[in-house]
Write a structure and sequence with these properties.
heterodimer; A: about 350 residues; mainly alpha; MetI-like fold; 2 strands; flat; B: about 300 residues; 11 helices
């Protein structure tokens, strides 16, 4: 192309092109074109969410905190040579002086033993009034509380998911009836019913000795039963709502038109699409279950006696509160840290995976 | 509107009936009857007693009788000390109600103020402080807070006397009870205030030159209150259940303490009566809140 630019008509309002030459209007080379492309890695939904999650300092902090707590409660029992129901003894002699020791102190008998060249693991949180190492009791209490929270949430998740997805998918009269049932259960005052049921279940439930249920204890089982009976309704409502909106999508219609069975559509197409909502509300369900468990333990309906839980430890600590306030502090602090970090993690997950769900 | 109210009231009645049924039948699953003693009574005596109190009739008839008595305000007698349960409730409930209502009023008022302040001063230090504290307090169980308050203010510092029959100091129990609802209300009203402030009508008002305080109080605050009202109903439930532990810690002679001691003594009739009483209260409170909610916000369609 020569530098022959069209002459400007004096009446035209267009730009006077004769001022430029044609070199200024060259086509971009392939290399230049490539530079203009915005290249970013293709990400999956999960990766993108995780990236957002790890950018949130509070969420990262809570993950670190939870990791630390998990690390302690998993590995501490391997390192600390005491057992949660073991009454302290030195060289096979019951140590009667090891009652209510302050953190990092030894009883007289233990001191003698150390002076004679023996080594004794320190009582990090001291001991309780029955001469048991308090640190290991708090660790086991945290284990129990976390387990209760985790399994209760899983139970809630499974029941809520099954019920909600069936109700939302089938719709019509079935949905109406199923949702009325949910409405009724939802309006029951949960805490009162839980207390009522645990009172009764504890007297009614009997397990064959030696079974898994026996070792868990009736209180623990009745806790799970009441959770399973009452708390799934919130989850069921949530999932039903999600499914009602997902059901409208074209790919569901496509799946139906090629004759996919209902169970396959629910499993393969609908549930994966509401997975973020499910994860988030499960994460927020765990702390509320831990709270409930600690209340029940406090009222005296929690896990069975030698087995500690954070709630029952806090309750037991009220007795000698004036003399040993730290005994309340440790389990209470553990509850607060666990619940706080789970709450923050749940919030972080919500922000990262589902900005629409923000309340 | 009337249709909605009628529907809501009927639903509440159904719920209460179901609660009574659950309570009644669950309690009947408990082994042992009211006439179990350490020294066993003869079968003839037990039969006579059962006939005397109508316990030999079918379960349904017993349930209907129980409901009839309930409607007449007769909750039966406590298994442990033989006192009229209605008398126990009448004596202990006012204290609990006063405690709960004070805590509730405190939590709602302060929560709305703090939440709105945080929303208006978004990302400045008051906002950050308020958010930090409210997150912290949602993670503290009320029995822990109650015990700590008791330890610090009553025992160590001695500023507030310990609760006794003659000395009634509501400050500490109310604080312990209100902490969680307060934190929750704060968070809730912050988000709803932020939502309200982002609406178009706020921009319109601003561009008209309406004073800032007027925008906040007249336009934004009113609309931001709606989610808080919906929360207030279930919050009553929290206050009542939370008051059980708080009352136990402070040894307040309220209905919560009675309930906890009934649980520990396995005093089944008292547990049953208290459950029904408190549950009915909660259902009614939630119902009133729902109706109020629809009244306040005419945009919400009646089902």
């Amino acid at each position: 192309m020569e530098d022959k630019m069209p002459k400007k008509n004096p009446l035209s309002a267009q730009l006077n092109l004769s001022k430029f030459n044609s070199y200024m209007f060259q086509k971009a080379s392939d290399e230049e074109k490539r530079q203009q492309d915005v290249m970013s890695e293709s990400t999956t939904f999960f990766k993108d969410g995780m990236r957002k999650l790890f950018k949130n300092p509070l969420a990262v902090l809570s993950i670190i905190l939870l990791g630390l707590i998990l690390f302690i409660i998993i590995f501490a029992p391997m390192i600390v040579p005491y057992h949660y129901e073991e009454i302290l003894s030195v060289d096979g002699i019951r140590d009667k002086g090891a009652k209510n020791l302050a953190p990092f102190t030894y009883s007289k008998l233990e001191q003698q033993y150390i002076e004679n060249g023996g080594s004794r693991f320190p009582h990090i949180f001291g001991t309780d009034e029955q001469c048991r190492d308090y640190f290991i009791r708090v660790v086991y209490g945290a284990r129990v509380s976390l387990l209760v929270g985790f399994f209760a949430s899983i139970i809630v998740l499974i029941i809520g998911m099954a019920y909600g997805s069936v109700s939302g998918y089938l719709g019509g009269t079935v949905d109406l009836i199923m949702m009325r049932i949910v409405d009724v259960i939802y309006s029951l005052p949960d805490m009162l019913i839980i207390i009522l049921l645990s009172v009764v279940l504890q007297t009614v439930l009997k397990f064959s000795p030696g079974s898994l249920f026996e070792s868990l204890g009736t209180n623990m089982i009745s806790l799970f039963i009441v959770f399973g009976l009452l708390y799934w309704v919130g989850m069921a409502r949530l999932i039903r709502g999600q499914i009602l909106s997902i059901k409208q999508n074209e790919y569901i219609l496509a799946a139906k038109s090629i004759g996919a069975p209902t169970s396959r559509i629910i499993k393969k197409h609908i549930l994966p699409n509401c997975i973020s909502v499910i994860i988030i509300s499960t994460a927020l369900q765990i702390p509320s279950a831990i709270f409930t468990e600690s209340y029940l333990s406090f009222v005296g309906l929690g896990v069975q006696a030698p087995m500690p839980s954070l709630g029952s430890l806090a309750n037991a600590a009220r007795g000698g509160l004036q003399s040993y306030p730290y005994k309340l502090l440790f389990p209470a602090l553990a509850i607060c840290l666990i619940v706080l970090s789970l709450n923050l993690l749940g919030d972080g997950l919500r922000d990262a995976f589902d900005p629409k769900l923000k309340k | 509107m009337l249709k909605y109210i009628v529907k809501r009231v009927l639903f509440a009645l159904l719920t209460i009936l179901i609660i009574c049924m659950i309570t009644f039948f669950v309690m009947h699953a408990v082994p042992g009857g009211p006439f179990n003693r350490e020294k066993a009574l003869s079968q003839a005596t037990i039969d006579a007693l059962n006939a005397r109190y109508g316990l030999d009739e079918p379960l349904w008839t017993q349930f209907i009788n129980y409901m009839k008595n309930l409607l007449h305000g007769d909750f039966g007698v406590s298994l442990k000390n033989g006192r009229e349960i209605s008398a126990i409730i009448a004596e202990s409930f006012p204290t609990s109600a006063r405690l709960g209502l004070t805590a509730m009023a405190f939590a709602l008022t302060l929560g709305i103020i703090l939440g709105s302040t945080a929303a208006i001063m978004r990302n400045k230090w008051p906002d950050r402080l308020i958010v930090f504290l409210s997150t912290l307090f949602t993670a503290v169980p009320s029995f822990v807070l109650a015990t700590l308050l008791l330890l610090v203010f009553s025992i160590k510092l001695g500023w507030v006397p310990v609760w006794s029959a003659t000395e009634t100091h509501y400050v500490l129990p109310v604080m312990a009870l209100a902490a969680y609802p307060l934190a929750y209300t704060t968070r809730l009203s912050k988000t709803s205030m932020l939502d309200a402030l982002g609406q178009d009508y706020i921009r319109t008002a601003k561009s008209k030159g309406v004073a800032k305080w007027k925008i906040i109080f007249k336009h934004a605050l009113k609309n931001s209150l709606i989610p808080v009202i919906t929360y207030a109903g279930p919050q009553i439930a929290y206050i009542i259940t939370g008051s059980m532990v708080v009352e136990t810690v402070f040894t307040v002679g309220g209905i919560g303490t009675k309930f906890v001691s009934a649980i520990n003594n396995r005093d089944y009739t008292l547990i049953m009566a208290t459950t029904i009483f408190l549950a009915t209260l909660m259902v009614i409170a939630t119902m009133l809140c729902d109706i109020l909610y629809k009244l306040v916000d005419p945009r919400i369609k009646y089902e």
